[in-house]
Amino acid sequence: IDGVVVHFIDVTRRKQAEERLRASEARLQALVEAQERFVADASHELRAPLATVLGNLELVHRFPDMPEEERRLALGDALSEARRMNRLIRDLLTLARGDTTTPPPPQAVRLEELAAECLRQISLLGPEHRFEHALGPVTVAGDPDRLKELLLILLENAVKYTPAGGTVRLELAARGAHAELRVRDTGVGIAPEDLPHVFERFYRADPSRSRGADPGGTGLGLAIAKQVVEQHGGEIRLQSEPGRGTVAVVRLPLARGQP
Ligand code: ADP
């Protein structure tokens, strides 16, 4: 033997690349699974009201001589379930559009003006509630239509889950580099075991606790709210005390140039 050649190869880069590939494959897999679960849940949620609509219409169609009162009930149920499907489809489309379309270029949005407009709109829904507000001037960069959606969802929930005579309060102020929006209500609140799940798609806490009869929510409102907030680079959380009320807190980055 005249000599020996020893080859050292640094495989750090290769290992890192393999690691990155594995991580992105896992992320993709999780995304596909979430999408499949969403489609399965959406079909399930739509199937139940559709079964009532079809069943009741079939009944009315096949038995033209059925007693008037029964016919009225069957058609009334079919109508309210068709309305429920309509709400579900509207919310599903909103979520899907938010997931798949590129948001328009951000505009400067005077949040206090939008908030006042939404509060006026919502106060018509709850004439038996008290509405309060403390709105400081705040400008954020974003999509005014989507921000309006966010405000309406939070205000509508505050009214929906607060019995007559309760108070809904909207607060807006700039804190540091953020706009801070709070929607407070004195309603039924959310149980601690439900609180971590309310932003999940289709999650609804016990509907019997909402104001009067089940107002027929879709369980998608807060999922849409979270999507809008995240698209604007912000964050949202709920604080709640069962029986005393709920506060939704939204933080959004201020538009550049604002103190
Ligand atoms: P829903 O259509 O059921 O209102 P959301 O996604 O808007 O769907 O809310 C999910 C759940 O969170 C609701 O079913 C309700 O149980 C709870 N929730 C949301 N906002 C409030 C609130 N202000 N007070 C009490 N519970 C609330």
TrEMBL record:
Domain Histidine kinase: 41-256
Species of provenance: Calidithermus terrae
Higher taxonomy: Bacteria, Thermotogati, Deinococcota, Deinococci, Thermales
Originating gene: srrB_2
Domain of life: Bacteria
The protein's name in its UniProt record: histidine kinase
Location of this fragment in the whole protein: 334 to 592 of 592
